[in-house]
Design goal:
Amidase signature (AS) enzymes; 17 helices; disordered N terminus
């Protein structure tokens, strides 16, 4: 409007024939560039609000418009907060009064739908919990609100964090009975192959958390949860930066569990800076409802941005675990090598290693994981899988860890009890029975083999077996794994391709920071049919360390991100 008035005044002055020498005419101000939430960072949003350039309401309106425009294509959301604009107005009033709650004041974020909110349902993607509003909020939900965040939505997820259906018919990533399949914004088409033509995406989205909405700029960032790969996998597939924290750094109270031994929440964002800001907010003070929150000492003010240094790679010792993670590797008792990268992935990782060297890092190559190359089958990580699916039912589970299936029976029943009389089912057994009774309604499209093998566990009688397996998990993943090589080589971090190191670090509960880096061909086996031209798939790099090493990992990841800046936003379709 101001620019229009200036133009009108100029027109009238010139039309009146006023002598230029007798008039002092100021040039029109440059047009105001509209602020867009697309790829905007949290600091950029905060700076724009602080300067008065825009309001939280305007940010939330843009976010809601994007959800309305693209949700039918992407299926990123289970529930949208109906009070999001009301909350934005409240944050704007507080800001006008000189009060900013914290680093997320007025910023829209989303939560995985296994994290309790009392203003929206928390379903875990399970049909039995459709519309269920828990009687208490998660600790991390409270921390977000205290920091001024607007929880704009609950995201899609793999149902019950992917502990419903394993073999013989494993559930696809990011599928749940409440909302269906999530689609990857880098190629949101359905899989056309006959064997998998059931609605799932042609490009995997990762799971069990969803990074779809963050990648598509539906909100600034989101909170995922991980037991083994469920933050790192979707971040890798959606070209996001994320932190899978040390187990215990962030409270699990009010989060639907698989097992307290490995469960953690963590931030997923488009930049390392945003992930670091989110991490500090989520951590908060130690939670009496989760004793593990005393595991790591937080930085002053829970400010992880203090570790974001462009020169953070100078002198950093980075290990390359070649065996299994980069190259195919022999396994004791087997003539079939395991693991390794394809040519395009190997090329991307070679380039990443080159960047690290250019930035002053000391590359230790190889820095193999001792438990991966151990010739004793009893001490070999590759031969020690997680018990999963019908093939790991009681009596068939001698050579796998029962930790997850035991923990699900123990911790899921505890969680159900915490819900009180409002819980739609009271035990894991009742959930299984409800699912069978509602099979025709779509409750268990892929079966429930994971729930079945969990429910057959006896928490008391199987305790000794669980404790032995848990000790072996920690030994192979930590003591004889990550710890051993990092101490021997004096490493600051291990560099893993994509999310490939997630299962190793998950056993002892160690942290990882993932950074967007490359796009590689999406070439599954079996291949897509002729005529289907698959689009390139995101591919990140992960920095893993020992317990409580998030500050150093963030420093390394940030320096790498700033040296590369490889995130490419998804295009419209």
């Amino acid at each position: 409007m101001k620019r229009l008035l200036v133009v009108l005044v100029l027109f009238m002055t010139v039309a009146a024939g006023a002598p230029r020498a007798q008039r002092s005419i100021r040039p029109a101000p440059p047009p105001r560039v509209p602020f867009t939430v697309v790829e905007a960072t949290i600091p950029e949003m905060q700076a724009a609000m602080k300067s008065g350039r825009l309001t939280s309401r305007e940010i939330v309106v843009q976010s809601l418009v994007r959800i309305a425009t693209y949700e039918d294509k992407l299926h990123a959301v289970i529930t949208v907060n109906p009070d999001a604009l009301k909350e934005a107005d409240e944050r704007d009033r507080e800001r006008a009064q000189g009060k900013a709650r914290g680093p997320l004041h007025g910023i829209p974020v989303a939560l995985k739908d296994n994290i309790h909110t009392t203003t929206m349902p928390t379903t875990g993607g399970a049909l039995v919990f459709d519309g269920f509003v828990p009687p208490y909020e998660a600790t991390i939900t409270k921390h977000l609100r205290e920091a001024g965040a607007i929880i704009i939505a609950k995201t899609g997820m793999t149902e019950l964090a992917n502990w419903v259906a394993g073999g013989p018919t494993p559930m696809p990533g990011n599928y749940n009975a409440v909302a269906g399949y999530g689609m990857n914004p880098y190629d949101p088409r359905r899989d056309p192959r006959d064997a998998t033509f059931d609605g799932r995406p042609a490009m995997q989205t990762g799971g069990s958390s969803s990074g779809i909405g963050t990648s598509a700029s539906f909100w600034a960032a989101n909170v995922g949860t991980e037991t083994s790969g469920s933050i790192l996998s979707p971040s890798n597939q959606n070209m996001l930066a994320a932190v899978k924290p040390t187990v215990g750094r962030i409270s699990r109270y009010g989060v639907i569990p698989i097992t307290a031994d490995q469960d953690t929440a963590g931030p997923m964002a488009r930049t390392v800076t945003d992930a670091a800001i989110m991490l500090g907010v989520l951590e908060g003070a130690a939670d009496p409802n989760d004793p593990a929150t005393t595991t790591c000492t937080p930085p002053p003010g829970h400010d992880y941005t203090r570790f974001l240094r462009r020169e953070g790679l100078k002198g950093a010792r980075i290990g390359i675990p070649r065996a299994l993670f980069y190259e195919r590797t022999a396994v004791p008792g087997s003539d079939r090598p395991r693991g390794g990268l394809n040519g395009d992935q190997a090329k991307a990782m070679a380039e990443a290693i080159g960047v690290l060297e250019e930035q002053g890092a000391v590359i230790v190559d190889p820095a193999n994981i001792p438990s991966v190359v151990d010739k004793d089958p009893k001490n070999n990580f590759v031969l020690w899988a997680i018990c999963s699916g019908v093939e790991s039912a009681r009596g068939k589970d001698e050579n796998c860890s029962v930790d997850l299936k035991y923990g699900m029976k123990r911790d899921f029943n505890k969680w159900l009890a915490s819900l009180g009389p409002s819980a739609p089912v009271k035990t894991l057994k009742e959930l299984r029975e409800w699912n069978l009774a509602h099979k025709n309604a779509g409750a268990i499209k892929y079966g429930q083999s994971q729930l079945d093998i969990s429910d057959e566990m006896d928490v008391e009688k199987d305790r000794a077996r669980y404790e032995a397996d848990r000790a072996k998990d920690i030994a192979l993943g930590g003591t004889h794994g990550i710890d051993e090589v990092m101490k021997a080589e004096r490493l600051d971090a291990l560099l893993f391709p994509g999310a490939s190191g997630s299962a190793l670090a998950a056993r002892p509960g160690y942290p990882t920071v993932i950074v967007p880096f490359a796009l590689v061909p999406n070439a599954p086996t079996p291949p897509f049919p002729p005529g289907f031209k698959a689009k390139p798939s995101p591919y990140g790099v992960s920095f893993t360390g020992m317990a409580c090493s998030e500050p150093r990992l963030l420093e390394i990841a940030y320096a790498f991100e700033q040296a590369t800046r490889r995130r490419v936003p998804p295009l419209r379709w």
